[in-house]
Amino acid sequence: MKPHSTLGTCLAACLALAAVSAIVRAEDTAAYKIQKIEAALIDSPDITVGNYRKQTKSKAKWLEVDLSFERADRNDKSFSGDVVVNYYILLNNAAVQPDGKPTLLTGSIKHSDIPVGKQLHAAAFVSPQALQKLFGGKIPSTISQAIIDLGATITANSTLAAIFTLKGSVAGDKGWWETQADKMTTTTGLVLEKENTPFAPLSWDYYLPATVSP
Questions:
Q1: Which one of 27, 29, 55, 80 counts the least CB within 10 Å of its CB?
Q2: At 102, which CATH number?
Q3: Residue 154 in contact with residue 34, Cβ under 8 Å?
């Protein structure tokens, strides 16, 4: 066999493999659709363990983000592989920031074995201590005072599968957190999965569990 024939065969095989891989990725990512994203300020939960019970006079407020989405059965798979939900929380705190810009909180939470279905829910939380720091020592009393906008994306196989915003616009595969990045100050590390909050043992029939690294 001539060398150029062998090279041509290898190239054809590689192109075919790449095409199949692209089709699989497209089918998998097309299976997700974000339906809604909501936020609420909620009290720390009352949890009693044995005789241990300590409370303050006033309960601290957590910021809870509830993402509702669906996963269709595009590949005849009942459960997904690893999927990452990326959160974008734009706080209404420009007035108390030295640079006069609102703070954008970003965080990514991994989920595995997501079933096929509608009205699936994923969650993210921001602690009372983080809110106090970001709002100059006082947590807002209403959600409209706390946030300007919310956004989220879902990535599967490292590919964008879905994108959604509460108020702002989406330009192709870019949300306002990218197209208007110069108008806000981005902070990472403050968006928590439910498993790292006092809400960890609650709402297991509502929220999908996060895949927490050991």
A1: 55
A2: 2.60.40.10
A3: yes
Amino acid at 18: A
Is the residue at 124 inside a domain? yes
Closest Cα partner for 84 from 149, 163, 201, 200?
163
Within-domain flag for 178: yes
Predicted TM-score (pTM) of the model is 0.83
Q: Which two tokens stand for residue 132?
A: 């106090």
CA distances from 155 to 10, 28, 104 (A): 31, 10, 20
**Cα 132 from Cα 137, distance rounded (Å):** 4
Can you give the residue range of the structural domain that contains 122?
A: 31-43+59-196
pLDDT value at 157 more than 50: yes
Q: What per-residue confidence (pLDDT) applies to 20?
A: 33
Distance separating alpha carbons of residues 109 and 69, to the nearest angstrom: 15
Higher pLDDT residue, 49 or 199? 199
* pLDDT classification of 172: cutoffs 50, 70, 90: confident
Q: How many residues does the chain have?
A: 214
pLDDT for 17 equals 35
